[in-house]
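Record 1 of the preview.
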Amino acid sequence: QVQLVESGGGLVQAGGSLRLSCAASGRSVSNYVMAWFRQAPGKERERVATINWGTAYADSVKGRFTISRDNTKNTVYLQMNSLKPEDTAVYYCVAEISQRQRVWGQGTQVTVSS
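->
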């Protein structure tokens, strides 16, 4: 069974940067689609970035966020630049095991102050 642990969240000023990490254990995630989601208070959970053979991003973060993976470390990253207050949310790492099975991390809080 895959377990995911996110880290790297915190408080940052608008315009700043953070890098989130998602460390996987239990099995290799190198063959899985991996994604980052986020959920802000009172809002729906939103898919932010996905990595498989390529990458895909929500329009709201395109050009500012970069998803990457290091298969030697079994880790996925989300580099977030030019952060905005509206990026404030809990960020979740997800392993898409199959079309019907996702494994979620516990989430990490990102707060962007104006």
